[in-house]
UniProtKB/TrEMBL annotation:
Keywords of the record: Nucleus, Ribonucleoprotein, Ribosome biogenesis, RNA-binding, rRNA-binding
Family as reported in the entry's similarity comment: Belongs to the universal ribosomal protein uS4 family.
GO annotation, biological process: ribosomal small subunit biogenesis; rRNA processing
Pfam families (alphabetical): Ribosomal_S4, S4
MF (Gene Ontology): rRNA binding; snoRNA binding
InterPro entries xrefs: Ribosomal_uS4 (IPR022801), Ribosomal_uS4_N (IPR001912), S4_RNA-bd (IPR002942), S4_RNA-bd_sf (IPR036986)
Limits of the RNA-binding S4 domain: 109-174
Protein name: U3 small nucleolar ribonucleoprotein protein IMP3
UniProt domain Small ribosomal subunit protein uS4 N-terminal: residue ranges: 4-108
CDD domains on file: S4
Length: 183
């Protein structure tokens, strides 16, 4: 291969991986991360890996005979799970939609993006800040992780924390202030 690396060369190259580059993919990852305010590149890579696994599974299922009961059952389970998660924007996704699944579909189900879509906040950056500061809950549980994927069922229970100043200001704006409830 070549000569042995000297001590100072080893120290410089210790954290460099020549086989796996994060900067590949034509900067699409940076564009998606900026649009959906994904702060951790590891989250993007996890979503990308899940998308690849789904595409691979769809391809393997497509190789089975069309009337195979195993194929039909697994396709139905996969489509139902993804529809329940809200990954597809439609109620009844088709098998052909599995090939088109993207990382952006998973990013659209992140908590700050869902909050912005429900008009709880003006933009995704503010939503991320509110989640990190502890102003948001899903059901009775406080959520401080902006990387949480919100399913369609969880979306109905998304609200502000009871003691939140944001909730109080919204109630004041709508003239629905209840001092007992917001105290």
């Amino acid at each position: 291969m070549g000569r042995q690396l000297k001590h100072h060369e080893k120290k410089l190259l210790k954290k460099v991986d020549f086989l796996d580059w994060n900067e590949d993919q034509g900067h699409r990852d940076a564009q998606v991360m900026r649009m959906y305010h994904v702060q951790n590149r590891g989250d993007y890579q996890k979503y990308n890996k899940v998308c690849g696994n789904i595409r691979q599974l769809a391809h393997k299922l497509a190789q089975l005979p069309p009337q195979d009961p195993v194929r039909l059952r697994h396709e139905e389970m996969l489509l139902e799970k993804l529809a329940q998660m809200g990954i597809f924007g439609i109620k009844r996704p088709k098998v052909s939609d599995l090939e088109k699944i993207s990382v952006a579909a998973f990013c659209r189900r992140r908590l700050p993006v869902v909050m912005a879509r429900l008009h709880m906040v003006p933009n995704v950056q503010d939503a991320t800040k509110m989640v990190e500061q502890g102003h948001v809950r899903i059901g009775p549980q406080l959520v401080t992780d902006p990387a949480l994927l919100v399913t369609t069922d969880m979306e109905d229970f998304l609200t502000w924390v009871d003691g939140s100043k944001i909730k109080r200001k919204i109630a004041e704006y709508h003239n629905k202030v209840d001092d007992y409830e917001l105290a």
